[in-house]
Design a protein that fits this description.
Blueprint: H1 5-21, E1 25-31, E2 36-41, E3 46-49, H2 62-65, E4 69-70, E5 76-79, E6 84-87, H3 88-92, H4 99-112, H5 116-127
Antiparallel strand pairs: 1-2, 2-3, 4-5, 5-6
Length: about 140
């Protein structure tokens, strides 16, 4: 697949616009004391997050996170020991992974929520005998 000069120039314009819209990363480190990846941006903002909350880092050990590298554009962080990447614009927009991965994480969290309403509904169902047993459909010969 050949890329035309027009497509190449358009990609460069999109990249320049993205770089102008988001501050680049200037430093990255793993802070063992608080068990967080800390990314410092050129704007002075520092972002810290637990590796378990980021796609690709969720099973990483602290030793896997210590040699992180900032991409040449400053818009990405690469963790070479586990071959994982974090995209700074996505991070700033609140996304720590793909939409599918984020949805699966939300589903895990949502199922664990305990509220008084959920607890009272479970008690009421228990008094009624609980969840009905599944029945097999009758076979007609």
């Amino acid at each position: 697949m050949d890329i035309t000069n027009t497509e190449f120039e358009a990609a460069n314009r999109r990249g320049a616009a993205k770089k102008a819209a988001f501050p680049p990363a200037v430093a990255v480190r793993y802070d063992r004391r608080i068990a967080r990846v800390v990314i410092s941006l050129a704007s002075g903002l520092e972002i810290a997050f637990a590796p378990r909350d980021a796609q690709g880092l969720e099973n990483a050990h602290p030793a896997d996170l210590v040699d992180a590298e900032i991409s040449p554009s400053g818009l990405g962080v690469h963790f070479p020991k586990i071959d994982a990447d974090i995209y700074i614009p996505g991070l700033l927009e609140g996304f720590l992974g793909s939409k599918r991965w984020m949805a699966s994480q939300m589903g895990k969290t949502g199922g664990k929520v305990l509220s008084e309403g959920k607890a009272s509904a479970a008690r009421a169902n228990g008094r009624l005998g609980g969840r009905p047993k599944k029945t097999k459909p009758l076979e007609v010969a």
